[in-house]
Design goal:
Layout (H helix, E strand, L loop, with lengths): L2 E14 L2 E14 L3 E5 L6 H8 L8 E10 L2 E2 L5 H7 L4 E4 L3 H4 L6 H12 L4 H14 L5 H4 L9 H13 L5 E5 L7 H18 L2 E6 L2 H7 L2 E6 L2 E7 H6 L4 H8 L39 H5 L5 E4 L2 E3 L10
Parallel strand pairs: 3-8, 3-9, 6-7, 7-8
Antiparallel strand pairs: 1-2, 1-4, 4-5, 9-10, 10-12, 11-12
Amino acid sequence: MESALEIKDLTVSFSSEGRKVEVVSGVSLSIPQGRIVGVVGESGCGKTVTALSVMRLIPEPPGRIEGGEILFDGADILHLSDRDMRSLRGNRISMIFQEPISSLNPVFTVGDQIGESLRTHLNITRKEEKERVLDLLRLVGIPAPESRIKNYPYELSGGMSQRVMIAMALACSPEVLIADEPTTALDVTIQAGILELIDDLRVKMGMAVLLITHDLGIIAEVADTVYVMYAGKVVENAVTRELFKHPKHPYTVGLLNSIPDLRRSKERLDAIPGVVPSPGSFPPGCRFQDRCPLAIDKCREEEPPLSEHREGHYSACWRADEVTI
């Protein structure tokens, strides 16, 4: 299937106190048209930095995209001029950011903020803009849009604010939607509604969606394929059903085992020992080796490549064939 967006060998670094550290190392992923691709991993694994690189929102300095390609509509986004990127951002590629309350401007109404994308990218009248904003509010399931359009962000609940963020991202009918933790801090009922909304809009609008989360339960519900990231690298990639049934990396197994399951009799959830290493402090060899129950000397000395272990199923592990859930 043709890719709507393709990232090839992306490397991103940040400078701190005169020292350059790599936070994303050679990440490659593909988002097919009309599909949802999940990117999962613990906090600090490079998921958001990868997404911000697509939008060219990495602050320079201290950040810097060191290499790679981000291909969209036959062009490398990394080589576009600032003017061309502004035309693309929020128009053909949009992003739902984490923490909607901190992403919305408190001194403008939600109607003004949704309408900004329309005013920037489309040649429409004020009347047409208002009608389009009302249509978007209805589309994302906000009740009484005629009154909500005049609300300020502080007057909205977390779920409402998230829906406003989605409306802003969808204002210009993008071809690619990046959703970065779109359900963070929402209760399970609202979370389910947001996920259903994103999936419905994907079908209606034919969008490709890059869904970033730390929650494999969310991935299981909506994603077609999954990329697992750890310490700035992709360590496993497969179709969702395949990855859940036959994980081929110990880190993925750890994430799967940490999902709450009412059918289990355990009093405590399984946990992956240790923490994600800080950029600049990655261990030699496999970056997961100091937390991995299967690590051997080779894991501590040589970094495993991302290799195909089953058809369409890739893992960066020297002992992938021995991994079981």
